[in-house]
Design a protein that fits this description.
The chain is mostly helical. The protein has 4 helices and no strands.
Amino acid sequence: MKSILHYLALLNLLDGIFTFYGLQNGHINEANPIMHVLYEFSPLFFLLLKIFLTALLYVILYHLTLITSVWIKRLSLFASICYTYIFLLHSYWIVQII
């Protein structure tokens, strides 16, 4: 279970960095309406929020002893699958640009 959460944290951080790069250089547009508003407000705030959310997940992981809820495990696995798809899609776009 913890490995899934570590994986999610890593994907979140990498997604934030790559998205920031793509947005800053005009290669992509932010499709998430909430993150789009945050980026328009302040690109630095956007990046810092992604870093903060990653750090928050690691704080939770540090204090997490054992998750026994099947619901939480399934939700984490589903989130990992979705985020992997999004990350691979973003990676494909970045490779096309380079």
